[in-house]
Design goal:
By secondary structure, the chain is of the alpha/beta class. It contains four helices and five strands.
């Protein structure tokens, strides 16, 4: 699975997953995506055939639903909340790395994730 991490998460998250052999990018690493509308981030993920990891549940769910209404596929939407993975906690980044690595390892080619919304 190819993954794009939304900008509320630091680029370190993508870097740690890449060090483990996964194809992961982060909005925080890309000047052309930082502080851009969610629609741009979503379309970029579509163009690159990447799933998206975000805690921006309302906006990205609407984008995924619109995609399906238009008979277009998306490559997975992985959602979380700040209560599940509080970004201010010092252990959260490690917990997220482990959780995403488990998911990426279980679905190396993104099998079964097309048009699916998953909760982490």
């Amino acid at each position: 699975m190819r993954l794009l991490i939304d900008e509320m998460w630091p680029a370190r998250l993508a870097d740690q997953l890449r060090r483990r052999g996964h194809d992961v990018g982060a909005v925080a690493e890309r000047d052309e995506l930082r502080q851009r509308p969610d629609e741009i981030v979503f379309e970029t993920a579509l163009a690159q055939r990447r799933a998206i990891f975000t805690e921006n549940v309302p906006d990205f769910r609407l984008l995924a639903e619109a995609c399906l209404r238009e008979s277009r596929d998306f490559y997975g939407l992985i959602l979380t909340t700040d209560s599940t993975f509080p970004r201010g906690h010092p252990r959260t980044l490690g917990r997220v790395v482990r959780a995403l690595e488990t998911l990426l390892t279980a679905h190396p080619r993104g099998d079964g994730l097309a048009n699916r919304v998953l909760w982490l």
